[in-house]
Amino acid sequence: MYNLKSNTIRRKVVVVGAGAVGATYAYALSQSGLADEIVIIDRNEDLAHGQVLDLVHGQPFFPTVAIRGGSKADYADAQLIVITAGSAQKPGETRLHLLRKNAVIVSSIAEDVAVSGSQGVMLIVSNPVDVMTYVAHKRSGWEKSRVIGSGTVLDSARFRYLLADHCGVDVHNVHAYILGEHGDSEFAAWSMTNVAGMMIDDYCPVCHKCSDWKVERKDIEQQVRESANHIINAKGSTHFAVGLALVKITASVLRKENSVMTVSVMMDGEFGLSDVCLSVPSIVNDRGAVKVITSKLPPQELEALRRSAGILKEAIDSLSQ
Ligand SMILES: NC(=O)c1ccc[n+]([C@@H]2O[C@H](COP(=O)([O-])OP(=O)(O)OC[C@H]3O[C@@H](n4cnc5c(N)ncnc54)[C@H](O)[C@@H]3O)[C@@H](O)[C@H]2O)c1
Fold this sequence. Notes:
Blueprint: E1 2-3, E2 8-9, E3 12-16, H1 20-32, E4 37-41, H2 45-56, E5 66-69, E6 80-83, H3 99-115, E7 121-124, H4 129-140, E8 147-149, H5 153-167, E9 174-175, E10 178-179, E11 187-188, E12 194-195, E13 198-199, H6 200-207, H7 213-235, H8 240-254, E14 259-261, E15 264-268, E16 274-279, E17 282-285, E18 288-292, H9 299-319
Parallel strand pairs: 3-4, 3-6, 4-5, 6-7, 7-8
Antiparallel strand pairs: 1-2, 9-12, 10-11, 12-13, 14-17, 15-16, 17-18
Helix pairs in contact: 1-8, 3-4, 4-9, 5-7
Bound molecules: nicotinamide-adenine-dinucleotide.
Nicotinamide-adenine-dinucleotide (NAD) binds next to helix 1 and helix 3.
């Protein structure tokens, strides 16, 4: 929608799913000043209505933004449609267990978005997010760049936090990525890990904080992998950090930032992989994940990426069995 007053395109975001993740994202997005309009949809209409009321009562305290409940008619002119609808991971349940339940939900929403004629970007959050991104891509028929998953953007943030804490430096001085599945087969791309402008292996001798870096490195990677389960066991769901990760992706879409993020994308020959969605560093702007950065991974990381792809392909295949 064109805004006559400001001569700009109205930045509209639709959030589908008003549960813990959808509501936390909407709350963080409201405060960010990135969107002109936030529309919240849930199959539980009372819940969506309650979340909207709770948010609009905060309007005097954050930048001007219209927040309201909506319907699938809202997809057509949204720049970004964020799908958090579905069941959440229960204690002890793996993300892959959610597969069948959430595939039905995401598939039907993706179809509605496609039918609306939207020219925006679809951002999938529902787990298992890589398989759901694949399902949404196939069902919508959209070009691959415009259907992205939140992938390992959250896991990469957890990794950066743990490295920063370990090395005793500000998290903004750490650049690091978790690649592959958002789940058990994800792995740390140590070859891309950079602290204070130095590759991690070069930084270590300067740092002197580890007793045995090889052991501590494995421990950090394991902690990242187990983070979600720890939080879910302790409080039932993870929603604060993922809400902020979604705001970061939103910023790159709405402001055409070209940020490099590990969103989940459909592979099309990159790293020798195709017909599977997983996380690799990609450039994200208003047309979605427009370019996968195909760096030269060392053999063990390439092997880990291919292993992750194999696991995800099995999950995708299991949907048609
Ligand atoms: N990708 C990530 O990094 C990440 C992180 C945390 C959670 N998640 C996933 O996000 C999803 C949501 O988690 P949550 O904690 O908010 O769950 P939740 O149960 O609190 O909320 C899910 C909401 O989806 C709604 N819903 C279900 N089917 C719908 C439909 N067809 N249309 C509209 N709304 C529908 C439900 O009514 C519910 O309110 C889960 O799949 C969870 O595993 C992903």
